[in-house]
Amino acid sequence: MGYQLKNDHLIVDFAEQGFYQGKRFDWSGFITGVTLRQGNHSFCVPESLVPGLGTGGAGLCNEFGIADPIGYEDAKVGELFPKLGVGLLTRVDEEPYQFHKEYPLIPYRQEVTQESSSKLCFTVFPQECRGYAAQLEKQIHIEDNRLILDYTLHNEGSKTISTTEYNHNFLGIDQRGIGSGYTLKFPFELVPEVDEEGSMDSLLFQDSEVNWNDTQDSWFYFRLQGVGQANEPQGWIWDLYHHESRAGVREISIYPVDSIAVWGEKHVISPEIFIKLNVAPGDSYSWSRIYEFYTK
Questions:
Q1: What superkingdom heads the lineage (predicted)?
Q2: pTM for the complete prediction?
């Protein structure tokens, strides 16, 4: 059985250590469920509703280096490179790194301690790899209707750690399918960029909002310009609300936003807020994410 945090407002469920053994998402602090007691609203869904499909993501799980893996470019075929929060992967060919590829893995040693009914602490221990070594600490706690994730990355190697990190946020309020019942808001005017024509046909962009004109029947993905304005006085980065459930979740973190993307499917919406990490040898860097769950 996994871990759980509880207070008068929230119940937060975590995957059991070893439940997720994929090569993509951070194994530590893998949140599979959040319940808002007022109204008994749920927020977390799996990446895929079909067992065995996708990369195993669910709920609130983070990833390092989706497009800029540490040490991959200068690794030779057969050599190891680090995937923070996961372990040491083996480069298998001359192709560019692909986050969904099944690279051979040597997992990092991890520990978890529960300090109280409202706080968990996770530690991912370093393992030296061609000059790279980092200890990742993650403290997760709840205060009222807020879920707070505090990260600290200690660079214990001889090379600078330069990469990105984000939380995937696999969200579907009360298991409601994605469509006209949802509104996703950002604190700036939206200028979406799309990679594939037709992937946003059901989406409606107006000022700072994304709405849906019908039920979403396929995947969608877009990136947002204007991220330099993402930390304005509103105090939130994004806000997802379902009108019939009258429930929502917003991220109210304050940290330097490197980029923003939104991915989704028929059952899931994933706002992805990226932070850029540049940590010199011997240095540490800390950042936090704060989620607020609410009803209207």
A1: Bacteria
A2: 0.95
